Fold each of these.
Amino acid sequence: METYSVGYLVGSLAKASINRKLARALTKLAPKHLVMHEIPIGELPLYSYDYDKDFPEVARKFKQAIADVDAVLFVTPEYNRSIPGALKNAIDWASRPYGHNSFARKPSGLIGTSPGSIGTAVAQQQLRGVLCFCNSPLMNTVEAYIQFKPGLIDDDDNVTDESTRQFLHNYLKEYIAFIQRVLTVHPRKPV
Ligand code: FNR
């Protein structure tokens, strides 16, 4: 099987982000054909179309990082039953300038964790709509709403609960199969 590169965007800027912890745990759990790394969003200024004629270096690098991967994975918290502002800002940067939408035909997946029992479900539903508009083929199932409990992921980014570990492993297996299907229909253009 071919190896796929996945850039993950963490929707939290917090140093102790549980979503970044989840992303790192996924990186460890990933099958060897899925190579994952973070595409940082924290240094992006607030987007305005005033930048469209001349994107700053940080935004150009951000768009290039998305262009360089086979697929993106959004690992996001839910803030006030919605998408965190920092993540929406990053998506707005990536989607512009008009005609240069980084997400077009780029396979994507969603996952998130929160201490609450519905584990980011509302934010993810909203993010689905945004990614649909951005023309990103998005994995429908498996849905992954992870309730975070203290100790769920240890200091070495291992998932301590066996059923959650199995669930995440299966999620990644489905995700790699999804990426493969999308890229069979829409092969990547050379970058
Ligand atoms: C939250 N939190 C939260 N949790 C949730 O399940 N639904 C929600 O709507 C919100 N709203 C919310 C707003 C704001 C501004 C903050 C800071 C937090 C709690 C949230 O799930 C918790 O802080 C997680 O630790 C956030 O994930 P990261 O940032 O640690 O990855």
Amino acid sequence: MSPALQTRNLTKKFGGFIATDNISLNVAAGSRHALIGPNGAGKTTLINLLTGFLEPTSGAVLLAGTDVTALSQHARVKRGVARTFQINRLFADMTVLESVLLAVNERRGLGTRWWRPVRAHADALDEAAQLLTQLRLGAVANERARNLAYGKQRLVEIALALAARPRVLLLDEPAAGVPTSESRELFETIAQLPRDVTVLLIEHDMDLVFRFADRISVLVNGAILVEDVPDKIGSDPQVRQLYLGEAAHV
Ligand code: ADP
Ligand code: MG
């Protein structure tokens, strides 16, 4: 089976600066793959290349074996690539259930119709409720997103992304700004997503990464230094050197 997501010799230059340096990455279907590396290593740039937000200087992006390098962000979403965005003002003022329902209807193509068959409405409501259960948001379904704790807001953002029924979910530091007391639950919830969604995640906190990932790629200066299972990454001398300040965690 083709990897869910692949890059081939992917390179991105900003002027003379090489932000992504000949990266060939394979993200296996169903995996929980983490991308780690120091600030400025090129992690966010790589995600931007995967979603089509940025165009590569050279190289290719493949989705389930199909070259999508020339496709727009929107076309890639349709093919199953999702990333999270911060809850916007519209969603912030809606209840959690309303906002997820809106996203589900959007995917179903019912979003802009003022009328809709009762059955279709019930199906969408079922689907939204199921997403809330999956993300442990059932208890806050009727609260406004903006009143939620940050960890829960992140989960709403993930629910909105999942409403598109993606095959691949890209998460760029989902725990950023989330208090430590909430980040573990956030990660447990992400880890429990069904395996038909492949997750590629950027995260700084090594404890969270090692708990979550079944595969880790270490990015340094735009290139992959090493890629392996967490145990091997944890004992890799180059990686330990890189994270010397955090040696206790690695
Ligand atoms: P990370 O997410 O690993 O911290 P980034 O991908 O955000 O790293 O950035 C990698 C490098 O590319 C950084 O040195 C950054 O300054 C540079 N960079 C990112 N985006 C741009 C841009 N649009 N123009 C110029 N340089 C950029
Ligand atoms: Mg970044």
